[in-house]
Amino acid sequence: MSAAIAVEDLAFTYPGEHHPVFDGLNVTIEGGERVALLGPNGSGKTTLALHLNGLLRAQRGRIVASGLILSDDTLAEIRRRVGLVFQDPNDQLFMHRVRDDVAFGPANLGLDDTEIARRVDQALDNVGAAQLADQAPHHLSGGERRRAAVASVLSMNPEILVLDEPTSGIDPLGRHELADLLTSLPQTQLVVTHDLPFALATCARALVLDEGKIVVDLKTEALLDDSDLLARHRLALPFGYHS
Fold first, then answer.
1. What is the full DSSP assignment across 16-84?
2. Which residues contact 17 (CB under 8 A, 6 or more apart)?
């Protein structure tokens, strides 16, 4: 397998801040992997996710995705190849119908109406949401909105999915359904989450990001079995949960 994502010596500081979020971060994810990105609040998980399709730009180092080095020249193609699913589905669902949200990306690629319709139908079918096509996003449940948001990314035919806190705001059944969905998809996936049982259900490998560095890289099951390691990085399983 070749690396789907390679983050090399990444440095980034937000404007007006003195302490860098990253100062030499390195991450490699192989093609076809599903990897959980864990860590305490403020560790830089969302900041890393936003770098992977160019919403934030490295101040040092480089991002390589699907063999392309992220640059001004490759930005549009990187954003097609790396689909980012935001923590809040409302950031991606802004049209009057789910169908129109899912069509938005392909339409901006300049595809013809027939190809756009084919992609919309396929993406909605892939996430088990064909019945939602003509519904208004604001009428959907949390889990349904999450499926629609994933479909809006899948319609771009990405090679990599980056999901930021995908279980936020959805009920236990929705979490199970989303786990089943993600494990059925062929794309390489980076799942940013605080939800340790969800990480175990979806990702064989887990990374812990703390103070701007990857401090743990383990099989997810092994990480969840180490309560001391979890506690050192302010991670915890739900009460009564046993991995």
1. T-SS-SEEEEEEEEETT-EEEEE--TTSSHHHHHHHHTTSS--SEEEEEETTEE-STTTHHHHHHHEEE
2. none
Task: Using the structure block, give the residue that is written with the tokens 């093609």.
Answer: 31
Q: What is the mean pLDDT of each run of 10 residues along the chain (243 residues)?
A: 90 94 97 96 94 96 96 95 93 94 93 95 93 94 91 95 92 89 95 95 97 96 94 86 64
Q: Which CATH number describes the domain made up of 3-232?
A: 3.40.50.300
Which residue ranges make up each domain of the chain?
3-232
Determine the Cα–Cα distance for residues 21 and 212; give it in Å rounded to an integer.
Answer: 5
Helices and strands (H and E) in the chain: how many: 9, 10
Residue for token digits 């937000």? 14
Query: In 3-state terms, what secondary structure has residue 109?
Result: coil
